Every structure is written in structure tokens, then in C-alpha cells.
């Protein structure tokens, strides 16, 4: 029986990305002087098993639902060691906060992945060894999910939500839903949950995928749909959240903008403090949305530890160039070509090509204008609002009548006192 770690390694090597091959000797890629790193967390248990799942009891798993497993910790430890080797010319062996900054979404598995990764990147040396454990505590920064518009992208954005609904109701997506309605009905019945979209399918697929990795026997009903019928829809689901330019700008634009700022500031020796690496620990959707924003994504589920590298380099002509690489296996990362540029993209051209995807004021751009509110007003909603206003007016009128009556009654009795001889 293969170990879970071995199975994970085999599965992640099967994804082929249609992009440039690994570093070509014909390219003048120069020397890396700065790196933005975005990666997905490591191996985890299912987040939300479907209601009829025979493996839906948390006690059947090595760690609670959605948590990083030992396999996941090991994956990121090895990735951190790979970073150490790749950036050995850039990073001193001893940790200093002036060299690296790490930000994670506020989720246990991404925080733990970042910490495991840093254990591989910065094994303590010299006077930084403080215990036989041989581990160096390094800060990982985060903010609550619902306040995070940079990495988790969960902060509420009205315009994004409205546009996402427009996409979900578009002819393209509706056709996919209509073509797969029979499958949706089958899954709803067998899984015991309402399946109405590709995202719902992806959730079930993801759970089954993990259960196969852990050698769990799947229910008989899954044999006719997993993986062949579910995987294409699950892969496609990763294109929905950043399906068009507006969604991309509002979903991943801030992250792209921050990375571009790092590159430009570094090229001018104006990055303060003068860091060499900026690390972002996040999710498969984060990786997919970011690549979608750069028009570099081919539908697939980014595997555990999938990594995007946006690196600033100085070539032999002393020019600043930018390279984008995608690492989703244990092999070397693949160079990707930003549409409209070369593999070794001049920094100025890179800034120009990405400018339209970066919001100038994210919070302001998230607001809906009156014409957009008006666009959402339908006749039923107008009728409902009218009824509500009528009810409010009637209640206010009754309240005013009651107050007037009360005061008049009080005034008529203000100077009148009943005598003991008055009949009771």
C-alpha cells in the first residue's frame, strides 16, 4: 500500500501546464534580486464532508477537518528548503526581519504551512540556535478573514458580489448548469446536499479526492461519476471567481498591485526595509485567481504547495526584468509568458501590462453607483417597497392619533378631582 505522501507526490506530477519550458539557456534571465512568492498550503483533511459521507466522522481522520496534516507539514518543510537553495545568493543563513516578510490568510492550515515552510527556509545557525529542537520562530502576519481584501479576499465588496451573480447567471454558466442538471440531481440525491453549481460539484470532488489519497473506500454510487465526470467541472470552478476583468481587478488586483509596488520600489532601491523576499501563504483559489488575473491560468485545481514566483532580476545588460514561474510539482518551476510581453519581461512593460488590473482605490471601486442599484430594482421589489411604505405611513398615523387623544384626555381631567359623594 502506498503511503499518503507518495500518492500526493504522484498526483501532483500529473498536471501539465501549457507554458514555457523550464529555464531556457537561450534566455538572458540574469540574477534574481527580489521575489514575491505565493503558495497554497500543504496536505489537509476534508473541510466539509457531504452529509451522507461514510467518512464524515472527524474521529476517523488524523487531525480535525480542514487542518494541516503531518504530510502537509513535511511538504512545506521541503518547499522551504527548496527556497533556501534557490535564494541562497540572496538570503543570509541567519534570519532577520529586514530580509523577509510573511503574510498568511487567517486560517490554521495556511498559518501552519507558512511556519513549516520557514522552518525549511531558516534552520537556525550559530547564535540563533536556542534549543536542540533546531527551529527558529519567525513571525507570520495575518488579519481576520472578513477584513482581508488582499490575500483572503473575503472582505465584502458589493460590486464584486453583484458582478459574480451576473456571471453565475450568464448564458455560458447557465448552459454548463443545464447540460449537467442530471449530474447535479444525481449528486444531490446521493450526497444528501443541494448541488446547483460547479462550485458545489467541486466541493464533493475535493472531499472524494482526499479520501482516495488516504485509501478510504468510496461509496458505490461514486464509481459512475468520480473522477471522470466531476473533475472537469471541479477544474472549471476555479475560473469562476475571477471570470472576467472586473472580477479579477476586485478579487486579486490588490495582491497584484502590492507585488508590482515591491518590484518597482526594489528596482529604485526604495523598498523599506530593503527586503529580499515577500511570502504569501494562501489557498488553491488564491493561486488560481491570481493566475487568472494575469491571463496565465489553465483550468485545474492547484495542488498542495502550488507556488507562483514573481521575481525581479537584473540581466547582463543591467536591465530590470520580471519573470513569472509556476511550480506545481517537485521539479523546477515552469516559466510563464505574460500576454503582450516576453518570458523575460522588462519591468516597465510589466508595469504597463498589469496596470489595468490594479484598483487605484479598492474600497471606492467596490461601491455600487445609483444606476447599478436601479438596475437591480424589479417590479416585484417596487411593489414590495410600496406596500412597506404604506404600512409605515398607516402605523405612524395611528401613533399620532393615539398621542393626540392621550394629551386631550389628560388636559380635560387636569383640574378635576372626584368627590367622595360621587357614585362609583
UniProtKB/TrEMBL annotation:
Keywords in alphabetical order: Disulfide bond, Glycoprotein, Hydrolase, Membrane, Signal, Transmembrane, Transmembrane helix
InterPro entries, per database record: Acid_Pase_AS, His_Pase_clade-2, His_PPase_superfam, Histidine_acid_phosphatase
Keyword Transmembrane: yes
Coiled-coil region: none
Keyword Lipid metabolism part of the UniProt annotation: no
Reactions performed catalytically: a phosphate monoester + H2O = an alcohol + phosphate
The enzyme's E.C. designation: 3.1.3.2
CDD domains on file: HP_HAP_like (cd07061)
Matches recorded under PROSITE patterns: HIS_ACID_PHOSPHAT_1 (PS00616), HIS_ACID_PHOSPHAT_2 (PS00778)
Gene3D superfamilies recorded: Phosphoglycerate mutase-like (3.40.50.1240)
GO molecular function, one term: acid phosphatase activity
Transmembrane segments: 382-406
Similarity field: Belongs to the histidine acid phosphatase family.
Name under which the protein is recorded: acid phosphatase
Gene that produces this protein: LOC107217619
